[in-house]
Amino acid sequence: MNRRNILLASAAAAAVFSSSLAMAQDTGAPIRLIVPYAPGGPLDITARALAERVRDSLGTVIIDNKGGAGGNIGADAIAKAAPDGLTIGIAATATHAVNPWLYARMPYDAGKDFAGITQMVRVPNVLVMNADKAAQLKINTVADLIAYAKANPAKLNYGSGGNGSAGHLAGEMFKQRAGIFALHIPYRGGNPAQLALLSGEVDFNIDNLATAAPNIRAGKLKALAVTSLQASPALPGVPPLSKTFKGFSIDTWWGLVAPAGTPKPVIAKLNKAFVAALNAPETRTRFGTLLAEPVPTTPEQFDAFMASERAKYQSLVKASGAKVD
Questions:
Q1: Which ranges in the chain belong to alpha helices (H)?
Q2: Which domain of life is it from (predicted)?
Q3: Cα 210 to the chain's mean position, in Å?
Q4: pTM score of the predicted model
Q5: Do the Cβ atoms of 139 and 165 come closer than 8 Å?
Q6: What H or E segment, with its residue span, contains residue 187?
Q7: 72-94: per-residue pLDDT in tens?
Q8: With the CA atoms of 45, 298, 23 and 54 taken in that order, what torsion angle do they form, in degrees rounded to the nearest 10?
Q9: What Cα–Cα distance (Å) separates residue 282 from each residue in 2, 277, 285, 315?
Q10: Domains of the chain (ranges plus CATH)?
Q11: Cα 222 from Cα 229, distance rounded (Å)
């Protein structure tokens, strides 16, 4: 087959694939959106909100929750689906940046088995202390916390939702940049870790802002800094850690991906529909209740972002020593 015939065949194949989505909508075939976590959480809620908003442009989108193994079961189902645009799913910090380094064996390749559609959201994490403990130790700022840790070596500890969790790795990153030591105490999930902080079992946590916000507003937790590059409108007056440590950024994020090999015209059609949904004022309002900021991107931008996040977490997981067999 000569070069001209190869090009013609490739163009014909792309045209067939790019029309598959439209044909499926015409026949009423739904799009399956795999969420690799249980129903009811922020990822599930935001996925369902977008599924409603793209109904007119893409047709019916069915949410398929496939939790387990830290999100790996659902992510693997996305990776192994047919690359026709009719099965897409959620890629998250854990499934596409942390787990590749945390798990000894992975069922999928986070860098090769997926095609980005668009990032959906980011949610800042927040460095918090028990408010009473902070007052007792006279800690009002990040600088105060670092000074106390250096003056009292090996006296501080911090909690997280488990070894290799976002809170654990954020804590390790903070310790590295601050040049301090604090003993990590893992709990069985984010809620037990927050209860430990509220009861005074641990000195500080780096928690998801959506989870910590109610207790911050109630005066039970003291917010010292957010972990995003910029300050969060949800916490006026609370500085970002990047103000103390240049470039410090460790947010929770998730977005939409398709199986690798999904034709670019199909990806482009999905991107157009979901970006429009993310830009809708109603979406921003709804996501705002979860303290989640919509972050619509191009497919290329999301692919590059996930690659940079994997590189960042590779060193963090190695430094933490966390492993899951």
A1: 3-26, 42-53, 55-58, 72-79, 93, 99-102, 131-136, 142-151, 166-178, 190-199, 209-217, 264-279, 281-288, 299-320
A2: Bacteria
A3: 13
A4: 0.86
A5: no
A6: none
A7: 999 999 999 999 999 999 999 99
A8: 30
A9: 52, 9, 5, 38
A10: 31-123+251-320 (3.40.190.150), 124-243 (3.40.190.10)
A11: 20
Residues 6+ apart with CB under 8 A from 246: none
Buried/exposed 256-288: b ≥16 CB within 10 Å, e otherwise: bbbbeebbebbbebbbebbbebbeeeebeebbe
3 state SS for 101-157: HHECCCCCCCCCCEEEEEEEEEECEEEEEEHHHHHHCCCCCHHHHHHHHHHCCCCCE
pLDDT digits (tens, 9 = 90+) for 224-259: 999 999 999 889 999 999 999 999 999 999 999 999
> How many other C-beta atoms are found inside a 10 Å radius of the C-beta of residue 247?
8
Instruction: Sheet with 61-65: list strands edge to edge.
Output: 61-65, 31-35, 87-92, 252-259, 114-123, 293-294
